[in-house]
Amino acid sequence: MKDKLAIHGGSKVRTQLMPARNAFDNRELEIIKQVFAHYRCRNQDFGSQGHYEHLYTDAFVQYLETNGFADAVNSGTSALFVSLASLQLPPGSHVLVSPVTNPGTINAIILNQLIPVIVDSCPDSYVTNTAQFEERITDLTKAVIIVHIAGKTVSTIDEIIQVSREKGIFVIEDCSQAPGARINGKKVGTFGDLSAFSTMYRKSLASGGCGGLVFTSSEKLYNLVCAYADRGKPFGQPHFHHSDPTVFMFPALNLNQDEISCAIGLSSLTKLDDLIKSRLNFLFDLRESITRHSKVCNPSPISSGDSPFVYPISVDTDQIVCSKREFAQALLAEGIDLNPHYKEIVCEWHWVKPYLLDSFVTNNAIEYRDKTFNLYLNENYGRQEVEDIVEAIVKVESILYSKL
Question: Residue 168: is its pLDDT beyond 90?
Fold first, then answer.
């Protein structure tokens, strides 16, 4: 065992970089060439809402194993924005939202002139549940955004849907960090009234630098989603022509996705199940090894229905002579890619507080964050990474372990 931590000038456990993801390979390059060929043979320039978007959205609906409609937009934030806009809620309506999410989720609520109401997570988790959701319902609650965070699902979503139906509350699923995940065999994104997905380059399903998808089983909501994503055009109405602004319905931005990005997304979709399987296999192996060898680290549970994005690992700070963040920083210095302290806890953002309904503090989410670090991973991690991560954990805790 090395007797000096890398953060203190010792040698690293892992000297080479952790495996790069390289999400886009020759398959994406080939399909981009197909986009050029498809439009050149027709003497056209490619734009949006064309052949490859139709292929992409049709394939996505089929992937969800259900019936419905999908629209491709230019970001996950846009997907959430147009999902909320399509509900046409009265300004000032309350929208319940999970406690841990990207600012894009909150911004979509605020920019629709709605009021975010933060819901806490379950103890020892970043995801919420029915009890936390019900505690925050108000007389003005009209919608809830359920976030499947870090690849973990909100397992009680059926109960949340039932309560919502009884109270006339719309349900939007934010599946940006969990595409392909399942709850009791059913894929996330198919439970609520609408679902939003981010497909930016870091996501499991990726359409290029930025991108998003919206899914709904309602044709009415789908047409409104398309309208809010494309300047208020009256999609679904007979004899509608895209270039006739005299019949547009309301002011809206152009949030369309382009044909090249849709083609990349189509290619990425074909790899998604294999990606999920590879990440799960890695995490099952890693969890078993950490559990067997570590005195202070507790890896979070994994199920076959997860779609891993990052992986939280708890640290028993009663057993070490430093803080969780210092422990994680020491692991980072050993060459292990991770986020020592997750900051996507909404109630802690000072800039958002004037827009929130109240000063509610999500203590469960904060307590879980304060004892965990998030391990980065991708589908190229394998046995060598398991060995290096565990070796680094054992090295760091052997030096910082308070019981020695």
Answer: yes
Q: What is the CATH number of the domain that holds 171?
A: 3.40.640.10
* CB distance 362 to 120 below 8 Å: yes
Residues 91 and 168 in one domain: yes
Residues 118 and 203 in one domain: yes
In the DSSP assignment, the letter for residue 6 is: G
* Ranges assigned E (strand) in 234-387: 297-299, 310-315, 338-339, 372-376
Same domain, 217 and 302: no
Q: Are 251 and 206 within one domain? A: yes
Helix (H) or strand (E) holding 215: strand 212-216
CATH number at residue 15: 3.90.1150.10
| Gyration radius from the chain CA atoms | 23
Helix (H/G/I), strand (E/B), else coil: 233: coil
What is the per-residue pLDDT across 86-129, written as a single tens digit (0 to 9) for each? 999 999 999 999 999 999 999 999 999 999 999 999 999 999 99
Please measure the distance between the N-terminal and C-terminal CA atoms of the chain and give it in whole angstroms.
Answer: 15
Q: What is the pLDDT of residues 300-341, one digit of tens each?
A: 999 999 999 999 999 999 999 999 999 999 999 999 999 999
- Of 243, 269, 295, the last residue of a domain is 269
Q: What share of the chain is helix, strand, coil (3-state, %, to 5)?
A: 40, 15, 45
pLDDT digits (tens, 9 = 90+) for 219-247: 999 999 999 999 999 998 888 888 889 99
